[in-house]
Amino acid sequence: MKLLNKVAIVTGAASGIGKGIATCFAREGAMLAIADLNHDAANATAREINAAGGKAMSVMMNVCDESSVNAGVAAVVANFGGVDILVSNAGIQIVHPIEDFPFADWKKMLAIHLDGAFLMTKACLPHMYKSGRGGSVIYMGSVHSKEASILKAPYVTAKHGLIGLCKVLAKEGAMHGVRANVICPGFVRTPLVDKQIPEQAKALNITEQEVIKNVMLKQTVDGEFTSVEDVAEATLFCAAFPSNAMTGQSFVVSHGWFMQ
Ligand code: NAD
C-alpha cells in the first residue's frame, strides 16, 4: 500500500475525477476526506469507500468560501489527526466566446479554480508544516494549463494560473518537505464534459458527434478519452513520491492531446 495511514483531502471528490482519485487512494491505505459542495453525493462516496473496507469521511465544503474551507479542514484534522495530502480538484466549466462571457461567470470560474486552490492550500499547509512529515499538494490542472481552446477564456486562464501557484508552493514548501505538482488531464468523460458537449455543439454550430471527434479527441494519438483511472494513477504517483526531487512539475495525461 503506497499511502498507508496518510490523510488525504480531495476536493470535488463526490463525482468524476475526484471520486476516482479518492477511491484509488483509499485502496492504497489512505484515510480520505471527501470534500464537496454536494453533501449527499459526498456522503454516498464516503459510504461506498467505507463499505469496500476503506476509511473515509465526507465534508461539506464550498472551496470559494474561506470560512467553509477552514471549517472543513479543521473537521478533517479533528477526525484524522492531520493532513498529509491535498488534491485540489473541485471545478466547473462554463463556455462562451469572450465578447459574450458574462463577467459574473468569469469571476465564478476564477473563484472555484484559483481561489479554491489557494484557500485549500493555505488551510492545509500549517498542518503539513507542523507535523514534521511534510506533505504533497496536487492541483488538478488540465491540458488547458498548457494550451488554449476557443470559448474557454476563464478556464484556460485559471488552469494556467495553477502552474504558477504550484511553482511558488514548491519553493516555499521545500524546507518543510511539502511538494507541489499539477496533473493535466485531457478530456475525461465526466458530468463536467458531458454538459459541455451540447453547449459546444450549439456555440460552434456542429453536431455533438463532431464535438467529440473533432474538438475533444482530434488531437489525441488514438481517438480515445482519458479515463478517470488514468488520472487517478498519475495523481497517486505524485502523492506517493517520496522526496522533493519531483516538485513544481506539471504532468500531462491526455492520450497525446497535448505534447510538451
Ligand atoms: P465533475 O463535475 O464530475 O466533478 C466536480 C465536482 O466538484 C462535483 O462533485 C462538484 O459538486 C464539485 N464542486 C463544484 N464546485 C465546487 C465548490 N465550489 N466547492 C466544492 N466542490 C465543488 O467534474 P470532473 O470532470 O471530475 O472535474 C474535476 C476537475 O478535473 C476539475 O478541476 C476539472 O477542471 C478538471 N479536469 C476535468 C477534465 C475532464 O475532461 N473531465 C479534464 C481536465 C481537467
CATH topology group of the largest domain: Rossmann fold
Mean of the pLDDT scores?
Answer: 97
Principal-axis shape equals globular
Beta fraction of the residues? 15-25%
Bound molecules: nicotinamide-adenine-dinucleotide
Widest beta sheet: strand line-up: 3-2-1-4-5-6-7
The CATH superfamily of the largest domain bears the name NAD(P)-binding Rossmann-like Domain
Low-confidence stretches: none
CATH-derived architecture of the largest domain = 3-Layer(aba) Sandwich
- The rounded Rg comes to 18 Å
The CATH class of the largest domain, by name, is Alpha Beta
Largest sheet data: 7 strands, parallel
What structural class do the secondary elements suggest?
A: alpha/beta
Portion in helices: 40-55%
Distance between the termini: 31 Å
Q: Please work out how many helical segments DSSP would assign.
A: 8
What's the β-strand tally? Answer: 7
Helix and strand sequence: EHEHEHEHEHEHHHE
Number of domains: 2
What secondary-structure arrangement, pairings included, does this model have?
Elements: E1 7-11, H1 16-27, E2 31-36, H2 39-51, E3 55-60, H3 66-80, E4 85-88, H4 103-131, E5 135-140, H5 153-173, E6 178-185, H6 191-204, H7 208-216, H8 228-240, E7 249-253
Parallel strand pairs: 1-2, 1-4, 2-3, 4-5, 5-6, 6-7
